[in-house]
Amino acid sequence: MRLAETLIWAAFLIQEVVGEYGMAHFSDEGKSKGKDYCILFNSHWARLPRDLNKASRLQIYDLTTSVLCSPSDVPEGGFPNRIPMVMRGNCTFYEKVRLAQINGAKGLLIVSKDRLTPPAGNKTQYEEIDIPVALLSYSDLLDISKTFRKERLVAMYAPKEPVLDYNIVIIFLMAVGTVAIGGYWAGSRDSKKRYMKHKRDDGAEKNDKETVDVTPIMICVFVVMCCNMLVLLYFFYDSLAIWVIGIFCVASSVGLYSCLWPFVKRLPFCKCRIPENNLPYFHKRPQIRMLLLSALCISVSITWMVFRNEDQWAWVLQDALGIAFCLYMLKTVRLTTFKACTLLLTVLFVYDVFFVFITPFITKSGESIMVEVAAGPSDSASHEKLPMVLKVPRLNFSPLALCERPFSLLGFGDILVPGLLVAYCHSFDILTQSSGIYFVACTIAYGIGLLITFVALAVMQMGQPALLYLVPCTLLTCLTVALWRRELPQFWTGSGFVPAVALAPINYTQTAAPQTEGPAAKAEQPAAGATDQSDAPPQETPPAEDDEEENRLK
Fold first, then answer.
1. Average pLDDT of the segment spanning 312-324
2. Domains in the chain: boundaries
3. Which of 229, 282, 309, 378 has its Cα between 20 and 30 A from that of 340?
4. In this structure, are residues 60 and 83 in contact, taking their beta carbons and an 8 Å threshold?
5. Burial annotation 413-445 (CB, 10 A radius, 16+ → b, else e)
6. Minimal CA–CA distance to 329: which of 321, 339, 337, 341?
7. Is 38 helix (H, G, I), strand (E, B) or coil?
8. What is 20-157's CATH number, 3.40.640.10, 1.10.150.530, 3.40.630.30, 3.50.30.30?
């Protein structure tokens, strides 16, 4: 439940450490064509030029067999007008760069097998050193060794980073669209079920089992489970990540089926059923089109699972499956009072803020547990990424895109949690005939909260829990509208539903089966139930009755 676009979390360290991303442009001597690699440097040692054309191209002295911690590590003749490349470890950054500087080096590249961290020092050390020092990853060193000859040139520079990436627009549209469509769909279904339940319709009561009404106890249990799961993922990421991927494949297949079935059932073909049999589930003789749709949804999930690491296109499948999963969850999980909405959003607000902003003070590495799990630990052996996010690749053309995570991410929780409130608002709108004011206001407030999150991310340049901005925007907006309309008691407890149902039966009887006389009138109740069960597999019905059932649904 977090927005994890290129997150930098060490803003409150006791010792001030300034880390900036830059580029090391490697090329063969005598050739202009080269390749950029990400470096992390500290401008307190020395600043780097912003433009590659203004950076000096100097020869690399490959000393990666040494850590450059003692004078004995310095080769005869030193490093005149060269940039030595050494391994990290055994001594401080200051000791390395001091040895390099007094021996004529014009810069220092330190190869790190661990996470890149800013090369720190103190004020006195910063004043003594006037050559740049930067960290380069070991994986990049291996690529450099394969790509270039031993006589290599390097130019270090730090291009200006774009303030905002255009993929934010795509994530914004996907998130707001999912919340609006899911809230509208779920609220409409919930209103019909409330009305039919009020009328004591047996079919509706049976269909009502498809939804889950959230209680305060369920909210507390859910949050405790989230905390435990997040901590377990932090410590046992490689062992649990594959299980999360498997669960996502199953859940997203169900969600995709649930979203596509209302459209498929309107198609005029493949309405016939399979022959009688004794197989599990198939003994109910489902329609051929249901089986074809199920096979399609499962195939999409399996395709994503097999090619999930293909960064160029697999993200499209993940986003489609993720949106379908969110719509399915919004339709299934139901908050029946604004009191329950407030409790859920408030508790998850605290949960999100704690695991993003507070946990860096608790963990030994100073890392945020939420950010680390959402984006995938850098030291993960499997290098798997949790699929519970919407992801869009970066669309800017800055070289710094190599340094940062190549995707912008938005967690499903940042869609589902406010989406449940939007669904409740739409349900309340319909059943109190309030012209959609709660639904529209809450949806707009969600979009504003998401925009504020993006602005905070760009301004503060550190990880932002999206619920920190989404929860106040949505809750306060709904509360303001309820106070302005003088409906807060009804909106808070949901008690406004029953009188509204009694006042507006005509609006919903139109969706039920047409009134008939005699024995045909008894079909009215199952027809209403069938309307609500549009997403569920059909019950065992002889093939000859298919056309009659479809006419009732229409």
1. 92
2. 20-157, 167-509
3. 229
4. yes
5. bbbbbbbbbbbbbbbbbbbbebeeebbbbbbeb
6. 321
7. strand
8. 3.50.30.30
In Å, the largest CA–CA distance within the chain is: 108
Catalytic residue ranges:
352, 414
pLDDT tens across 221-265, in order? Answer: 988 998 999 999 888 888 898 999 999 999 999 999 999 998 988
508 to each of 189, 209, 528, how far by Cα in Å?
11, 20, 10
Rounded Cα–Cα distance for residues 535 and 496 (Å): 28
Cα-only R_g, the chain: 30
pLDDT above 70 for 516? no
Cβ burial 141-154 (10 Å sphere, 16+ → b, else e): beebeeebeeebbb
* Amino acid at the residue 67: V
Closest CA to 346 of 475, 218, 480, 493: 475
Would the pLDDT of 266 be above 60? yes
Segment 43-63, tens digit of pLDDT: 777 788 887 878 888 888 888
Q: Report d(CA 67, CA 99) in Å as an integer.
A: 11
Q: How many other CB atoms sit within 10 Å of the CB of residue 24?
A: 26
User: 389 with 250: CB under 8 angstroms?
Assistant: no
Burial of 517 (0-12, 13-18, 19+ CB in 10 A): exposed
DSSP three-state, residue 61: strand
* pTM to 2 decimal places: 0.67
pLDDT digits (tens, 9 = 90+) for 155-186: 888 887 666 677 888 999 999 999 999 999 88
Q: Which residue has the tokens 């009138």?
A: 521
Q: What are phi and psi of 343, to 5 degrees?
A: -65, -45
> Which distant-in-sequence residues (6+ apart) come within 8 Å of 335 by Cβ?
213, 214, 341, 344, 420, 421, 423, 424
Burial 109-133 (b: 16+ CB within 10 A, else e): bbbbeeebbbbbbeeebbeebebbb
- Predicted confidence at residue 267, as pLDDT, reads 81
Orientation angle between helical segments 237-264 and 314-332, nearest 10 degrees? 70
From CA 205, how far away is CA 199, in angstroms rounded?
A: 10
